[in-house]
Amino acid sequence: MPYPFASPIPLPWFLADLVTLLASLAVVLYLVRTSSHPVAALLESFSFVFLYASVFENFAVGQGWYVYGRSLLMIGEVPLSVPLVEMDVLMIGLRLVEKLEMPAWSKPLVIGLLGMLQDFSLDPVAVRQLFTVGGVRSGRWTWLLPAGAVNIYGIPVYNFPGWMLIMAYAASFLLLGRWWFRRSGFRPIVGCLYPFAALLLALLAMVSPLSQFLLWLAPFFTKGSSGEWIMLAVHLLVPSVLLAALWRGKMREPILLPGDLVILAVPAALHLADILFVVAGGYERVLWLVVLASLVHLAFLGLVFALGVRIAKGAKDRTTSAAV
User: Helices 107-126 and 262-281 sit at what angle, rounded to 10 degrees?
Assistant: First the structure.
């Protein structure tokens, strides 16, 4: 493995990593400050990064699906910032859906949709940040697409439903683990065990044949075929319909400012960084996609915050009136 300081890290790559590290620090501090069981929350984050996301990303590199540029902080062949940004999306997504009045089975799909929206601004930028490091020219990451494979600006279509799966699997098993933790009466041993068990099960699901069906309708379609477009539409439409049909603005618990601001601020910071990279790098071709994904994602989060603040204000006014 090359010594990390042998070649300078390109400034845009370094800045992107720095934004992710700061966002991840904010997420971890938020979890510690607001969780009823902060040790379990930290173990969830740790297990996601080191037992799930980084293992799968290294597996994907080994399979020859894509390669990453070098970073100062690497886990094998993968920059630490990659599983960290996925962890950010997952953990704040879990805190968000706790507050939405929806059936538990539907919540992982909502988190998956949020992950897809985050990646629709992230990937088109990262693959265009091309630099020569150590004699090798690459993007911050580079997809190794076979000839004729369906793609969106050089990114395989299945990549975006892939974010749905990596988020939804992790969220599903973590929610089951939290249920086990509650049923145990919050026994410390269960709180220490379930994050590891949940993410190992999620990893097994991620590499199972089920994922190939959910990404490109295998065995009926092959990888790189139009089956990827069909499943992209499914993964975008299903959680959107669930939100419209099941949520409809109902809140189990109001979001409070500034205590929950991280839920909005972290995705906003990541999207803003992507937009600035597009403008600074002259990647006008993908600007519309990056801006559209950012606006849709932040409009939804803004709506949740607006409804949450209104509900909290109404509850406060009723309490004040009752006291009078």
Answer: 20
